[in-house]
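Students often ask why inverse folding is considered easier than folding. One informal answer: many sequences map to the same fold, so there is more than one right answer. In these notes we will look at a single instance of the problem. The structure comes first.
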């Protein structure tokens, strides 16, 4: 239920629905033992067909979106150390050549750190990267974080240069990257906008639209805003003595977070994670979201769509939300306290039609097509033709250097010892027998083919 899982699904659905393109969503397949670490409520899938059926059912039931697009899976494993899913083998082999026209790499740096195989730019005519995660901020919080962040910054830039024609950064909270533009190309599940309309109608009828107070929802790991929230509440327990805040989430740090928050002299209640569109959240008036590691916070957009007030940090990751009157930003701890108390005592401002549209996936898809130059890419394909011999140009020289860099990365990423030094999961150059069996893959001269 994280933004990096849900948003690519909506992007695929709306590109197929609104732009009338043939779209294929390619998502990771995890073996059951890894599924237990990742999926909430002990959800697990015994086959790709079962997983695909769940995704499509969720899209229709939870979002009421009907769209025709393909879904295929690539082999992957879960890294406990990185708390992240990483590809296994050359995932470009998962995509048939006849489908390889435009690739949208959701988190391109993540997908290329350990990529060994065919170059994305060789496989596809156009490669667009979408930067979801502020990895540098996460790394800085680890041991020797400044050194790691320095190295990661240059590795990310190098890989983006090699593998992407164009990059879309959701906000300036991410690192500056070659060939990049800044644009929030995410929207919200339309069900959230429906909730906002219903809450506005309740208020119009003289009823209390938001009978509950404040809450926070997010994956329960310290770096997802819980540490910042703990600091704010701890430092101002006297001023916020009457505050009741409910926390919702699952994650690797759940036990430690529960123990730490229980020591506060405040009304803090902690519950298991739930889908944000769940009716349980409709009555809350204020979302407190102090996270500064997000690039564009999905839950903030969803809360605004539901007509709630959001209290968040004045940070580049929240720049897009400044246009909404219900988004209140703080620069200091004292301002946080003042805004929180005021929000609990006031009514949210009704969303205008323009604000609703800006939060929608229809608008997000329009922004994406423009920011990624997708129409230009399709025109280039139609007009492409062989070019006569020309003396070597600066562009040719740049391409030669880029190809040499790609060759170097491909060589290093093919050495098991080097991969492990840089943090890859051991023995992931090729899928193991369990993944092969579950995905129906067979090996032939080190290449992978779909078995069905």
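Output (designed amino acids):
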């Amino acid at each position: 239920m994280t933004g990096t899982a849900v948003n690519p699904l909506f992007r695929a659905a709306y590109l197929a629905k609104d732009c009338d393109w043939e779209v294929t969503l390619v998502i990771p397949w995890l073996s059951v033992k890894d599924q237990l670490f990742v999926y909430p409520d002990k959800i697990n899938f015994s086959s790709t067909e079962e997983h695909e059926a769940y995704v499509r059912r969720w899209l229709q039931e939870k979002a009421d979106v009907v769209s025709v697009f393909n879904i295929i899976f690539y082999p992957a494993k879960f890294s406990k150390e990185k708390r992240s899913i990483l590809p296994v083998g050359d995932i470009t082999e998962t995509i048939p050549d006849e489908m390889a026209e435009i690739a949208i790499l959701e988190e391109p740096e993540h997908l290329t750190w350990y990529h060994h195989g065919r170059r994305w730019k060789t496989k596809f005519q156009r490669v667009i990267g979408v930067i979801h995660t502020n990895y540098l901020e996460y790394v800085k919080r680890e041991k020797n974080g400044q050194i790691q962040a320095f190295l990661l910054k240059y590795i990310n830039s190098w890989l983006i240069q090699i593998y992407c024609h164009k990059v879309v950064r959701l906000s300036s909270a991410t690192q500056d990257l070659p060939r990049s533009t800044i644009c929030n190309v995410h929207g919200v599940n339309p069900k959230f906008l429906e909730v906002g309309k219903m809450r506005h109608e309740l208020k119009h009828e003289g009823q209390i639209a938001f009978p509950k107070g404040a809450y926070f929802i997010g994956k329960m790991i310290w770096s997802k805003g819980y540490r910042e929230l703990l600091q704010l509440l701890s430092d101002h327990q006297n001023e916020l003595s009457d505050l009741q805040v409910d926390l919702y989430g699952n994650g690797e740090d759940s036990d430690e977070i529960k123990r730490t928050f229980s020591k506060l002299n405040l009304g803090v209640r902690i519950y298991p994670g739930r889908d944000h569109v769940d009716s349980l959240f409709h009555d809350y008036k204020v979302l407190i979201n102090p996270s500064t590691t997000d690039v564009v916070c999905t839950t903030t957009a969803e809360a605004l769509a539901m007509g709630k007030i959001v209290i968040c940090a004045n940070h580049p990751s929240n720049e897009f939300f400044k246009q909404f009157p219900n988004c209140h930003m703080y620069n200091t701890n004292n301002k946080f306290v003042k805004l929180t108390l005021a929000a609990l005592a006031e009514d949210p401002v009704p969303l205008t039609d323009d604000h609703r549209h800006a939060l929608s996936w229809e608008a997000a898809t329009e922004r994406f097509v423009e920011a990624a130059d997708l129409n230009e890419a399709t025109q280039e394909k139609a007009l492409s033709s062989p070019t006569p011999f020309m003396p070597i140009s600066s562009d040719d020289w740049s391409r030669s250097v880029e190809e040499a860099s790609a060759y170097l990365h491909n060589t290093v990423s093919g050495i098991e010892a080097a991969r492990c030094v840089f943090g890859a999961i051991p023995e992931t150059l090729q899928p193991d027998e369990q993944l092969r069996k579950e995905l129906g893959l067979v090996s032939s001269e080190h290449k992978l083919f779909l078995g069905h």
